[in-house]
Amino acid sequence: MAAVHNPPSAPILISFPDPDALVDSLASFIVKAQKDSVDKKGRFTIALSGGSLPKMLRGLINNPAVKWNKWQVYYVDERVVPLDHPDSNHRACTEHLFSKVPIPSENIHPLDPSLLNDLEDLSDSYEKELIREFAQKDSARFPVFDLILLGMGPDGHTASLFPGHELLSEEDRWVAYVDDSPKPPPKRITFTYPVINHAARVAFVAAGKEKADTLKSILDDPEAGLPSARVRPVFPGQLYWFVDDAAAEKVVYPRTPFKL
Ligand SMILES: O=C1O[C@H](COP(=O)(O)O)[C@@H](O)[C@H](O)[C@H]1O
């Protein structure tokens, strides 16, 4: 009998009146994902984006429900710059979150700063970090993050997967590099779709009216194929959109009330 493949679940769109309301619910959502994972396997694997996301994680600061010593934090994408450079996603996450919470530094996995001059070695070494966390890489196996948090650029990019780029069709590598990012800086490493789409939960976070047209395209016209619309976690993974009403103002796709 032929194997039955369940189709991806429909994305869940949750819209909040303003970014502060979004921040609190996002923190509750992350804590719930953490609890489910820690109860099951004693560990919580999460991947973070840069851009506007790190600031939106402020609801985790001084939150007694967060078990920081259980977190293993990776970066969905990283700009190829020193770790203390203003463009670094690791620096942004450190400034907005990690410097304010008791997370052990060994639980955070930035890129290897000694490899900044060799993009291929850099992305291979980050892929090896994932292999260490999630076991051997083989053609049948992909890492399953407990939670991946994504942003969406006004051009529809997510991670460092940009419209029209050849990496949109990458099916094998877990981590890849770009040296021609249309958004500076040009050199970056990024998770590929096989990693993003095998997570247990993926949540986009997007706020502001400058994202309204793009969000409409992604949710109401996914066939247009913007990079963020290609995020469709395989069953039983679930995709969430945490947005504010300004970003969602043009979207017809149905909203779901927030509940844990
Ligand atoms: O360059 C990047 O952009 C995206 C989106 O950023 P945002 O500021 O529009 O939220 C971000 O998710 C990614 O990590 C980053 O490298």
UniProtKB/TrEMBL annotation:
Its EC number is 3.1.1.31. Keywords: Hydrolase. It comes from the Eukaryota. One of its GO terms (molecular function) is 6-phosphogluconolactonase activity. It catalyses: 6-phospho-D-glucono-1,5-lactone + H2O = 6-phospho-D-gluconate + H(+). SUPFAM superfamilies: NagB/RpiA/CoA transferase-like. Residues 17-241 form the Glucosamine/galactosamine-6-phosphate isomerase domain. It is an enzyme of class 3 (hydrolase). One of its GO terms (biological process) is carbohydrate metabolic process. InterPro entries: 6-phosphogluconolactonase_DevB, 6PGL, Glc/Gal-6P_isomerase, NagB/RpiA_transferase-like. Pathway: Carbohydrate degradation; pentose phosphate pathway; D-ribulose 5-phosphate from D-glucose 6-phosphate (oxidative stage): step 2/3. NCBIfam families: pgl. Belongs to the glucosamine/galactosamine-6-phosphate isomerase family. 6-phosphogluconolactonase subfamily. Hydrolysis of 6-phosphogluconolactone to 6-phosphogluconate. This is 6-phosphogluconolactonase. It comes from Crucibulum laeve. The lineage of its organism: Eukaryota, Fungi, Dikarya, Basidiomycota, Agaricomycotina.
